[in-house]
Backbone:
């Protein structure tokens, strides 16, 4: 990605700049200390020579010796500068490589997030286009029909309404996904009895449960969790919705909760179509749907529910997993800390 490449380049320059400034300061300090020592040595030797009592005929030698000392000092100074230059050049090369690697590492999570965002946008656009394309082609065909009967028109409108319902369903899912992208609002965090979460989630699906003659068993005592009520109801509701969606009529769904230690374990078990082992690693990914033909309600769903559920569980510092046998049913299990201390919460 171009933007990441340019950010890597800029960050490399920043890191390298910092390294070179430090190296420059270090070299300057080293130079000052070494040169002071060298010149102090030279001065000491020069003074010693000056003080040496010499016969008059050797006096020019004293002069020559002093000049040699000055030359030696100049030579040492050049050598010192050369060494420091080589050191800085090596720092530039090694520092450049290290800065680049460090920049790549620093920006990797951002690059991954951008890639995921790009994939998500592409998937979402694709899902949005499908119902729109269906509506457009139905309307075009109907418009080409010279003598459209009112019955045909009604059928067309009904079909369009179904596509609109799908779009609403999808945009609702996308909105919920966006809502849970942020962290929890600490002021909303409260102690919530799991039984209440179950009751609110069941309320949302009561009609479908009755229509499909699905028997619901609830087993929850006085367990309570700390968290955001609306999100946790949404979580149970998603799992219950799936349990109903992927189960045959007249089957049984069981919601249960129990506390073990500081963890509340919630499970939603059904006797539905089950999930193939090969699909399980992916079902919590956005837009992932296992083989649709196995489900009763073929159209319902965009593969967003479980990714939202996973996000809600993550926001509550918990864990979600599934056990499933194709043809026999699935059990989704959630573990949530009973008393998680949320930052800034009033609890
Ligand atoms: P959706 O149900 O909208 O397709 P989800 O993210 O909720 O999306 O689920 C992803 C996939 O996981 C579903 O398409 C389905 O194949 C599978 N799945 C989820 N829950 C169940 C369940 N209780 N029984 C069988 N399959 C399930």
Residues:
């Amino acid at each position: 990605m171009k933007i990441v490449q340019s950010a890597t380049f800029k960050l490399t320059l920043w890191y390298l700049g910092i390294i070179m400034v430090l190296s420059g300061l270090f070299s300057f300090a080293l130079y000052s200390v070494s040169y002071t020592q060298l010149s102090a040595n030279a001065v000491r030797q020069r003074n010693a020579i000056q003080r040496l009592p010499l016969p008059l005929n050797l006096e020019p030698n004293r002069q020559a010796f002093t000049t040699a000392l000055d030359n030696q000092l100049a030579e040492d100074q050049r050598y010192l500068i050369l060494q420091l230059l080589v050191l800085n050049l090596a720092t530039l090369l090694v520092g450049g490589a290290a800065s680049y690697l460090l920049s790549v590492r620093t920006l990797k999570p951002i690059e991954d997030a951008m890639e995921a965002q790009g994939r998500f946008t592409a998937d979402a656009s694709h899902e949005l286009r499908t119902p729109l394309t269906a509506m457009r082609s139905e309307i075009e065909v109907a418009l080409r029909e010279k003598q459209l009967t009112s019955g045909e028109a009604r059928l067309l409108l009904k079909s369009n309404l179904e596509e609109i319902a799908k779009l609403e369903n999808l945009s609702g899912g996308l909105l919920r996904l966006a809502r849970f992208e942020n962290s929890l609002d600490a002021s909303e965090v409260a102690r919530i009895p799991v039984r209440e979460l179950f009751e609110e989630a069941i309320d949302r699906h009561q009609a479908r449960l009755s229509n499909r003659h699905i028997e619901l068993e609830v087993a929850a005592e006085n367990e309570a969790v700390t968290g955001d009520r609306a999100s946790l109801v949404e979580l149970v509701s998603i799992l219950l919705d799936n349990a109903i969606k992927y189960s045959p009529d007249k089957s049984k769904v069981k919601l249960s909760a129990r506390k073990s230690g500081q963890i509340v374990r919630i499970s939603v078990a059904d006797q539905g179509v089950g999930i193939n082992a090969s699909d399980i690693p992916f079902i919590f990914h956005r837009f992932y749907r296992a083989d649709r033909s196995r489900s009763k309600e073929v159209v319902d769903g965009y593969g967003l529910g479980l990714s939202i559920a996973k996000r809600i569980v993550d926001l509550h510092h918990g864990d979600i997993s599934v056990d499933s046998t194709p043809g026999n049913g699935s059990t989704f299990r959630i573990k949530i800390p009973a008393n998680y201390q949320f930052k800034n919460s009033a609890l």
